[in-house]
Structure formats: C-alpha cells, structure tokens
Design goal:
The complex is a heterodimer of chains A (432) and B (400).
Chain A: E1 7-9, H1 36-40, E2 46-52, H2 54-66, E3 73-77, H3 80-85, H4 88-101, E4 107-113, H5 114-119, H6 124-134, E5 137-143, H7 154-160, E6 177-181, H8 192-199, E7 204-207, H9 214-217, E8 225-228, H10 234-244, E9 248-250, H11 257-271, H12 278-293, E10 299-302, H13 310-319, E11 323-329, H14 337-347, E12 352-355, E13 373-375, H15 377-382, E14 387-389, H16 401-416, H17 421-426
Helix pairs in contact in A: 4-6, 7-10, 12-16, 13-14
Chain B: H1 13-21, E1 27-31, H2 36-44, E2 55-57, H3 62-67, H4 70-84, E3 89-93, H5 95-100, H6 104-115, E4 119-122, H7 130-145, E5 156-160, H8 164-167, H9 170-183, E6 186-191, H10 203-207, E7 213-216, H11 222-232, E8 236-238, H12 243-254, E9 272-277, H13 279-291, E10 297-302, E11 316-319, E12 328-329, H14 333-340, E13 347-350, E14 363-366, H15 370-373, H16 386-398
Parallel strand pairs in B: 1-2, 1-3, 3-4, 5-6, 5-7, 7-8, 8-11, 9-10, 9-13, 10-12, 13-14
The chains are: A alpha/beta (432), B alpha/beta (400).
Chain lengths: 432, 400
C-alpha cells in the first residue's frame, strides 16, 4: 500500500465518492473542530459533565485541559456493564447533583458518549429531576464520533442548543447590533472586521467567547443580523432566522481578495448596510504584493487543519502564482467547498489531494520532501522539510483582508524562524 | 465506580495493548468509532510521530453497529494488513465492541485465514486499568509467537512489562538494561520492544522461553511471568530498581540470594513521603527513598491494582517492594488529594498532573507517569532507573 492509494488529482475530485477511501482510520493530526466539550463550554456560566467509560473520557479530557477548561469540566467514569444494564443512571444523577452543589454555574451540559448513544439511554427522567432539585438547566449532548456523517454533528448540535437561552427573550431590534457566530478564539475588537462594521454604523458586535455571562449572551436575540464564520454555527443561525427573524449569512474565514470582498457584500446585505471595503482592499493588495512575490516559485502544501477552507487558500495561492503541490483533506468536504474545488481544478489540475486519514500515508514523508512551505499542522506532519505555518483557529483570530496579510506575514516569519511541526502539535496543541 | 475525575482518567485497556505492541511492526486495529485510535496516537503514543501506522481505528459508525457490517470491516482490515505488509494483526476491543458483543475472536480467525498472517484479538473494553490490556496483549503475543523449543541461553533474562505507559521513553529505562548486561545477564527478550541488534522485531519474543529468569518491571508483565513459569519453569523477580540500594537488592534477588540491605544513605530533610503511580515502579521509588535517602516513612498510592505483585505466586523468587500499612490502591482523585494534603506529608513523588491537588506547600518531585499525563510530560527531563534515578532524586531532594 503506497501513498498513491491515498490521493486524487484535484481535477478528478468532483463528488464525495471520488475522494480516496481509507479502509481503516489511519492517523493524521487533522481532526480539527471535533470538540463537543469545547463547544459547550463556550456558553457562559456553564459547566460540562461527561459520562462514560474512562477511555472515552480520557480523550475529551485532553481537549478540555488543552483549551483551559479544566475548572469547568468534570468526568464521571462508568463501566460498560453498568451502562448496558442501565445501572449507571442513578450514579450519574447522584454524581451530577453532587458536582452542581459545589458549582455556581447556571447551566450544566451532560455529555454522553457513543455507548449511551448506541444503547439509546433515556436521560429524560434524570435531567428533569436534576433540574427540579438544582434549579439549573441541564442540556444533554453527545461526544459520539459514531454518529459522523449521518446527521448533524454533535458539536454543531451543542452549538445549536444555545438557542434555548435566546428563544425566551422578547425581541427588541437593536439597529446597530450584529451577532458573530462560529468563533472559538474571539476576533479582536480593534481589528478590521469591527472597524468596517462600525463605519457602517454597526458598532455593537456580540460574539460568544467574549460574553461574560448569559445576560450578555442573550443580547444576541436583539441583533439585526447574524454572521457565521464557521459551519458549526449554521444550525444556531438558522434557528435565529426561522424562529426570531434574524437574517443570517455564511461568511467563513477566507484568504482570497475576491472571496473576502464577496463575503463583506453578503454581510452588508444581511445587515442592510453598505460596507465600504475598497480602501482596505487596496491597502491589503499593496501590502500583500511583496509578500506574495517572495513565495512565487516555492513549493507549498495546504492542510485541512487551517482556519478556513484548504481549497480556498490553495486557490488564492495558485491565482497569485504560488506553486501548490499537495493538499491534505478529509472526506467531510463542506458544501461550499465544491465550487472552490472546481475552480482549483481548472486553475491547477495536477494538485494532488490526499486523504490525511489514510493508513498508507502514515509515516510517509519522502513524497513531500521537496515542499518548502506547509500550511496547517497536518500538512506539516507529512512535509518534513517545510516551514510550517499552522494558521490554527487557536491562534489569534483575524478576518477579512487582515487575515490574508496575517497569513502572509506568518509565512514570512515561519520561513525566517521556523518552529518545528512537533512543537506546533505537542507544545502548542495546534491539532484539535 | 471511579467518580469525579477532574484531572485525567488513567489510560485503559486498549491503550495498554497499544503500549505493549507498538514497536513490533504489527498492525493494531482498535475496533471502535473514529477518533479512538487517533487520540491514542496523538496523546498517549508519542512514538507515533512521523512513524508508520501501527495503531489504526476501525472507524465504526452508527449504521455499522445497527446493521452489523462485519464483512465490511473484515475486508477493510484484510486489505490494509496486506497492503502494509505487517508482521501480525492485533484486534483490540473498545466500549462499543464490548457492548454490542462483536465477535473479535471470529474476526481474527477469518482475517488470519484470508491473509496468512498471524492474527489475534485482545479482549479489552474501555474501563479496565491499562496494565490489564497490556498484560492480555503480552499473553496473546506469547501464545502466537513464543517458540517452546527455543534454545536455552546461559544467563539469559527476559524483561517483562517495560511498557511506555509506565516507563516513559525507552532511554529512561535503558540504564537498567545496561546494569543487567554488566552484571552477568544476556537479555533474550523485551516484551514491549525489539532489542537493537534484532532485525526480526519478534525475535526476542520467539526466543524468550530460552531464558533462565524473568525480570518483571511492571504489573503488566506479571501474568506473562506466571504463564512462563507454569509452561517453562522460568522463575521471576518483580521490581523496578530505582537508585543504588534497590539496584543491589534487585541483582541479589535475580541471583536467588537474600538481598543485603545497605542503609549507607544520604539523609534528606524529609520524614514522610508519598509516592503516587504504577505499583512496581512506585515501590522501587519507595525502596530508594527509604534506603538511599533515609526517609522514615514512605507510603505508596498505587493508581493501578497492586495485589497481584504481592500474591506470592509460584515462580516468584523475589519482590523489590516493602508493603506498608499505609500503602493503598486508588485512582480516586479526592482520596489522593486528601492523602497528599495530610499535614505530616512533606515530600511527594508523582506525575506533575497531580500537583493541582495540593493545597499547601510540599516538596514535589515530578516523575511523569505516561498513563496519566501522556505526551504532556513526555519530553520532560527526569530519570528513575538505577544510578540515574538516584542522581535525579538526589538533585531534587538535596539540591537548592
């Protein structure tokens, strides 16, 4: 089994079934975004309590600790036998009651794993009794990778569940308020996004990671529009639109100037304002020119652990004369990416798209020895000689033209002062 | 029920399987949903980094469970195993396979028939302590590969249980191997990794029955030692020698003699120590603190079961451990926290992850336990084996 089994030319990637099939799940550090705990704990004044076999809890605990949620994350270990017999329900109820008695948070996420999901354990009674006895809201969630591909992902569900804390608000439209959804690390209030919106009179942006409490979070109910930066928030924004009449638009992080301009147009349409980006774009193009010039002729690879779409970044690089050789992806290609893939296929059909989870790819670095710059820690994993630019969503977050310049500056810095891929993964946790 | 984990729950059975088999050029298939194998590799198997695929996941999905798509997974495993050309395939169970009752033994038989490769399953789930998984993996490995007619090796010794979840990087364990070689022994097999001069990664396993004695350095190796005594009459010693006195005592035991206790120690200003970790290594630390550094009272908290190491099993000719009245087995964080904060305790040796349980000032000597902190402290500078362990502890206890 050689790496050829794990790849396809981008021009031939037209639908999901074309993507190279991985007979078993190999390992690439590419599962960015699979974080139910992380998503749940974005909600202010919440605590997460995960229930399941130790093995499953250990997995999530690393993520919770890496994201700094140690204080708000608890685990209740139960055995497979207890779960099968349903004997764990009383223990779970007792355990959660005990934990909540010692916590001030108003909301508890009860997170179960694949075993309870498969067994169809009914937690309704447990939750009702706990809500009655503690006076706190209990929300059931699942850290259940066994559900991948069939329905809304557990972390999207967790994010959508935040609607429960908005739906009872009496909606009073605030003309100047915009909801920003899908951020983990918040966008800076002094950054481009806030500036452009403020110039159009939208000077009150609410984003969940910056909400200190549920009251602040509830202000979203009065926003005039929602902007979604990450697909996980589409469920919540859809509910806000359907149930509360708050217009929404999907404008994910992008690096290409034309993509960014289109996104600002969409945001403006949703908000009913004209966003003036001409000067900002002009300045960004000017600043980007020398940085892009230094990349021309370089061999690059793009991975799927970056903030944004690897296909979109690759397209931007190719359109600006940068040589993209390889792209590392997962089978979960998002609907909006197919158009990008088609454009990329037309612009540079010979780019090889690899399934980063394919077992034939593990330990393979020789085919990528020539790559000089790798975007994403998953690409850096395979491109051993490349300067690795993580573009992680756990770094400071940029949006719009600012993100493009930041990406190019990060590339310049990585080439001048490379940080090893090992350190990005093991010292900085830029993988999950 | 192990309630209220707030730090990290310890690694469990299939993590132990991975730890035991990782270095033998096989393919370990974790039979569960996506993500299980990924997390083992990223967090608990730093040996994975840029290495070949050893631990892979089955990628089980909901409809597979409902529909029982066994054929699909057998096909996938066969295809991958043949494609990668590994020396064996091991199937390891997860909470899901345990709950739905997947017939992994049947899988193994079918895959073996279709690949002509050695294939075995290890009955793990997701709640058991990791040494149990490692122990079962060793037994399966022995059953599959050990050669009952292996030639006898004069001075031959096998080292059992040196898994990375207990021992950390192999370089930390290497000083003990050097001591054994310097003494009179020839290392026949390491059940956890091939020896540097072995081109066939499983050579040590095949030849293991030819050894004169087994050294069991963690509880993960105990069941195999008992099995090898029953089948081949090989006696064994249990212990992980930390420091100088421990090393001497361990070598005495391997020679079949009563260990001579030398209390010619470097006294330290600590009177009551608490050691938290895997039982064999923790008792090795206790021996060192008592006999090399004169700490008056050392209590061991074994976070995985220790009972078997004191069970006076036939074939066991020595245990480098002094069981104390206050030693106990628990991984309950609340209980561990209470013991750590006992006012009389003035020295703690434990994985740094336990430090947040301390409420006041104590001398805390960090000694990572990979089954607890995984990659978090993988690259930390520390030692425990023989004289290197003495030097590390001396620098911690006698330094500034």
């Amino acid at each position: 089994m050689n790496p050829d089994h794990a790849r396809i030319r981008v021009e031939h990637l037209r639908e999901k079934s074309d993507f190279p099939f991985a007979p078993l799940e190999g390992v690439g550090p590419n599962l960015a975004g699979w974080g139910v705990i992380e998503t749940s704990l974005l909600l202010p004044e919440s605590v997460a309590i995960m229930v399941g076999p130790s093995a499953c809890l250990r997995h999530s605990a690393f993520m919770a600790h890496a994201r700094g949620f140690t204080e708000r994350f608890h685990m209740l270990c139960v055995s497979e036998l207890d779960m099968t017999m349903g004997n764990h329900l009383s223990k779970v109820e007792r355990g959660i009651a005990d934990i909540l008695a010692r916590r001030d948070e108003k909301v508890a996420f009860l997170i179960v794993g694949c075993p309870d999901y498969i067994l169809g354990t009914d937690f309704t009674g447990v939750i009702n009794r706990l809500e009655a006895s503690t006076g706190k809201r209990i929300i059931l969630g699942a850290m259940a990778p066994i559900t991948i591909g069939l329905k809304e992902s557990p972390f999207t569900s967790a994010y959508t569940s935040f609607y429960e804390f908005l739906k009872h608000e009496h909606r009073q439209l605030n003309e100047n308020r915009l909801n920003l959804l899908g951020t983990f690390m918040p966008l800076s209030e002094s950054g481009e996004f806030y500036r452009i919106l403020a110039n159009a009179g939208l000077d009150d942006v609410v984003q969940i990671p910056l909400c200190p409490d549920l009251d602040t979070f509830a202000r979203m109910a009065h926003g005039r529009a929602s902007v979604v930066l990450h697909p996980l928030a589409n469920g919540l924004s859809g509910k806000l639109e359907r149930e509360m009449g708050i217009p929404t638009c999907f404008a994910p992080t992008a690096y290409g100037f034309s993509s960014i301009r289109e996104q600002y147009e969409r945001i403006g349409q949703a908000a009913g304002r004209t966003l003036d980006v001409a000067v900002v774009e002009q300045e960004a193009r000017k600043a980007a020119a020398p940085l892009l010039a230094s990349l021309r002729g370089r061999s690059t690879a793009v991975g799927c652990s970056i903030n944004g779409s690897p296909f979109e970044l690759a397209l931007f690089l190719v359109e600006n004369g940068v040589n993209v050789d390889a792209l590392f992806a997962r089978g979960t290609i998002k609907p909006y990416e197919w158009d990008l893939i088609a454009k990329l296929g037309a612009a540079k059909p010979d780019i090889q798209v690899y399934n980063a989870s394919h077992p034939a790819l593990c330990g393979q670095t020789a085919p990528f020895d020539h790559v000089e710059i790798a975007y994403g820690v998953d690409a850096g994993m395979f491109c051993a000689n490349a300067a690795n630019v993580p573009l992680s969503r756990y770094q400071e977050q940029k949006y719009g033209y600012e993100a493009t310049i930041w990406m190019l500056e990060q590339t310049r810095d990585a080439m001048a002062h490379p940080v090893s891929n090992y350190d990005w993964i093991y010292a900085h946790d830029f993988l999950i | 029920m192990k309630e209220y984990h707030h730090l990290l729950p310890l690694a469990t059975g299939y993590f132990g399987v991975s730890s035991a088999l990782y270095d033998f050029d096989g393919l370990v298939v974790v039979y569960g949903p996506a993500g299980g194998a990924w997390h083992i590799n990223i967090e608990d198997e730093p040996r994975w980094y840029r290495g070949p695929a050893t631990v892979v996941g089955a990628g089980l999905l909901e409809m597979d469970v409902i529909l029982g798509n066994d054929d699909k997974f057998i096909d996938n495993i066969v295809r991958t195993a043949k494609g990668l050309g590994r020396s064996f395939v091991a199937l390891s169970g997860t909470p899901i396979s345990e709950i739905i009752g997947t017939d992994l033994k049947g899988f193994a038989r079918t895959i073996e028939a279709r690949t002509d490769m050695p294939v075995f399953m290890v009955p793990t789930a997701g709640s058991e302590p990791y040494p149990e998984g490692a122990s079962k993996a060793f037994l399966a490995l022995a059953d599959k590969f050990m050669d009952p007619n292996a030639p006898k090796v004069s001075g031959g010794i096998n080292v059992l249980g040196a898994i990375h979840l207990t021992m950390g990087k192999g370089t930390r364990f290497a000083p003990l191997l050097d001591v054994l070689r310097e003494d009179r022994f020839r290392i026949v097999g390491m059940f956890s990794a091939p020896l540097p001069d072995q081109t066939d990664p499983l050579e040590g396993v095949r030849k293991a029955p030819g050894a004169e004695i087994n050294a069991v350095v963690s509880t993960s190796g105990l069941a195999l030692a008992e099995h090898m005594h029953a089948d081949y009459g090989i006696p064994f010693v249990v212990g992980m020698p930390v420091g100088l006195a421990g090393c001497n005592a361990f070598l005495d035991m391997l020679d079949g003699s009563t260990p001579s206790v030398h209390d010619d120690c470097e006294p330290v200003p600590y009177r009551h120590a608490l050691v938290i970790g895997e039982p064999v290594l923790s008792h090795g630390l206790k021996y060192c603190l008592s006999h090399d550094f004169g700490v008056g009272r050392v209590d061991v908290i074994s976070v995985t079961p220790s009972e078997q190491m004191f069970s006076q099993s036939p074939g066991c000719i020595g245990v480098l451990a002094e069981r104390g009245h206050f030693d106990r087995d628990t991984d309950d964080e609340k209980q561990i926290g209470e013991l750590m904060n006992d006012p009389s305790v003035d020295l703690i040796v434990a994985d740094p992850c336990y430090r947040p349980l301390l409420k006041g000032e104590r001398k805390f000597v960090p000694l990572p336990h990979t089954a607890m902190s995984a990659r978090i402290h993988w690259d930390m500078e520390y030692e425990y084996a023989v004289d290197k362990g003495y030097e590390y502890l001396a620098s911690q206890l006698l330094g500034d």
